[in-house]
Amino acid sequence: MDELRKQAADLIIDRLKTNKVADVASDLGISRQAVYDIKKGKYCPSLSLVQKACDVWQVRFAYRGLLIDSTSIRAKAVGPPPPVATQRDLFEALGQLDKRSFEVIDTKPMGHALEITLRLTLPAQKAAGGQ
Questions:
Q1: Distance of alpha carbon 80 from its chain centroid, rounded?
Q2: Per-residue confidence band for 27, with pLDDT thresholds at 50, 70 and 90
Q3: Other CB atoms closer than 10 Å to residue 95's CB: what's the count?
Q4: What is the pLDDT of residues 55-108, one digit of tens each?
Q5: With helix as H, strand as E and coil as C, how does the chain read?
Q6: Model pLDDT for residues 5-17, shown as the tens digit of each residue
Q7: Would you say 108 and 114 are in contact if contact means Cβ atoms under 8 Å apart?
Q8: For residue 124, what are the contacts with CB-CB under 8 A and spacing of at least 6?
Q9: Cα–Cα distance between 75 and 44 in angstroms, integer?
Q10: pTM of this structure
Q11: Looking at domain 2-68, does it have CATH number 3.55.50?
């Protein structure tokens, strides 16, 4: 494990041979103090930081068969989830409910909230094409 930590730190320390501490810190999105701590051996870079270094500097990191480069680890895409095709239909059906379409099955307090179990009865809809 110490070998992995040293090799991960060396990836960043090697960059300090050609770049300023402030530039390395900026590239990696960390503080200059964190870069100094890595250099002094007080802090071991995480694999996500190693991944970021590989992305930014277009380098590879290899350790005992583990290869990290700009394509190895990817964060999940950020943004709204893709729309669900049936969601609009469900909201339309819920909007058409009247008091005869649902009944309260159970209620129980949940901290400062109330959990309500409902039974909804939705009328069957005809399939497209008159089937």
A1: 12
A2: very high
A3: 7
A4: 899 888 888 777 777 666 655 566 776 665 555 565 566 666 665 667 778 888
A5: CHHHHHHHHHHHHHHCCCCCHHHHHHHHCCCHHHHHHHHHCCCCCCHHHHHHHHHHHCCCEEECCEEECCCCCCCCCCCCCCCCCCHHHHHHHHHCCCHHHEEEEEEEEECCEEEEEEEECCCCCCCCCCC
A6: 888 899 999 999 9
A7: yes
A8: none
A9: 21
A10: 0.52
A11: no
**The residue to which tokens 């007080």 are assigned:** 42
Report how far residue 64's alpha carbon sits from residue 70's, in angstroms, rounded to the nearest whole number. Answer: 18
The amino acid at residue 45 is P
Q: How many residues does the chain have?
A: 131
- Phi, psi values for residue 107, rounded to 5°: -135, 145
User: Domain spans of the chain?
Assistant: 2-68
Q: How far is CA 56 from CA 23, 25, 29, 112, in A?
A: 12, 12, 11, 47
